[in-house]
Amino acid sequence: MMLIGIDPHKSTHTATAVDPETNRDLASIRVDVTLQEYQRMLDRACQWPERRWAVENARGLGHHLTSWLLARGEQVVDVAPGATARVRQLSRGAGRKNDRIDAAAAACVAALQGDARPVQPESSTDALALLDERRSDLAQARVRAVNQLHALLRALLPGGAPRDLSAATAEQLLDTVVPVGSAEFTRCALAADLIAEIRTWDAKLKDNAKAMAALVTESESRLTDTPGIGAVTAARLLGRTKNPTGFPTAGAFAQYAGTVPIEIASADRVRHRLSRRGDRQLNAALHTVAITQIRMPDTRGHTYYQAKPAEGKTSREAQRCLKRRLADHVRRTVIGDERRRTRTTGSGGQPGATTASSAAGPTPTADSSDKSLPGPAEPEPTPTPQPA
């Protein structure tokens, strides 16, 4: 199989074909960053029916080209810039450096060093991440419009408007105002514009939720079987947990989600505080699920939370314990969904990386009764002491 190394830049990309058996540079081409030039480079590469692309920094400057190649069924691996730098330093003529040498180094790393990582095509989880980011922007715009409307109604109505203000309620309140003077007329006109904007944001948020629900249903995820996880929350959890098998242990995923408490020094007893590390959006989603289950008496999360005060835990500490268990549950569920999809679709794509990374951690299992809360956290491996 021919290896084609790519050295990406902002305005140009250099591609170098390297024979993996002889490590010889066979051909090279530099193209501009345009779709027409991408196609010209792919046409040149078609002379090798079996080929693989090694893109340096595929998640950075090479992201667009990588996505374009994956969409056309090409095999692509990501090569870290540090790995290509080591190849240049250890090869003959280490002082030389140009785009062609960098592209060849990327191919050499993919062929010999084993530092390349397979890149998978974008899936529904990437679409859910985009929808979740869009939803956050829409929600912020709506909150800003509601705050401005509150300020205007406070000057038009005695006592202002209630906190939970909707477009319909604001319109009813505005109809009771009889403006007098140019300032009040202007306030009424601006309030009417803001009410129209809020209705627009509400409609867009509703459409966004429908799109999320459709993608979650398409992904056949079992996260929505968990009490407290609806379509919108499941979309955020799936979008933020794109590669669950990349975390070797449940503790590593909990660290990423910010649900691992931090121990602090205390004179009387061992204490822990809230961790502010990790993905805060993922942490907020887990917090929402935890609070929802606490308020649902028929869930295992509620039972788990109610049992914690007997162990000497405060309400906040009990919440953090529940969030930690929910992080384990989400990881197991997402990994289970991924394995079911792999069994359904067969061995298409590049499943080798998925199988290897999945085997690194403990086998996630959950029976049919574990739909609201996972069992105890998985213990971290204890390092074996080495003899002196």
From TrEMBL:
Domain Transposase IS110-like N-terminal positions: 4-158
Basic and acidic residues: compositionally biased ranges: 329-340
Region (Disordered): 329-388
Biased composition (Low complexity): 352-367
Domain of life from the UniProt record: Bacteria
InterPro entries, per database record: Transp_IS110-like_N (IPR002525), Transpos_IS110 (IPR047650), Transposase_20 (IPR003346)
Domain (Transposase IS116/IS110/IS902 C-terminal): residue spans on this chain: 221-306
Pro residues bias (residue ranges): 376-388
One Gene Ontology molecular-function label: DNA binding
NCBIfam families linked: transpos_IS110
Name used for this protein in its record: IS110 family transposase
